[in-house]
Amino acid sequence: KGAGEMADPWALWGKTLRPGDVGDPTHALLHHLADVAAVSEVLWDDALADSTRELITGGLGGTQADARESLAFLAGLHDLGKACPGFQMLRREALSPLRQAGFGLPRQVPGVPCYHGVVTTETLPAILQHQVGLAPQAAQVVAQALGGHHGTWPTPLELQALRRWQIGE
Fold it and tell me: What is the rounded distance in angstroms from the CA atom of residue 141 to the CA atom of residue 89?
């Protein structure tokens, strides 16, 4: 896009159908992030014990409503790394629509895998520090936890191996 113009974030895909599923082959990334945030709110309301909510609230400070909102926001960020070119380029059929939506993607699809959790871990600390106001160490811990949401914590070697084209802007 030109200076000051933003690519259409609704073009980013977040989930794909499993074999045998019927419907649109992809689920928009923004919908997926909002779905997860909403589920975390339901879990807060219906699954957590009062003592657990109090413990989390005490750790975060503020009210229980503030803690619920903060956790939903953070849960919604878990797949932030899926917005990167390295992940979006995994679906070849998505390349043309993404370019038409204004995303600058490499013309060739490099054969280097890009795990979205690693990108989340790499990119999220700056966002949490500068946009949310978290202290650097807290931002790093949260980013590491969210980047490892599939149960595999991104390693320092994986973070060092990331290339600029994989992360994008």
Answer: 28
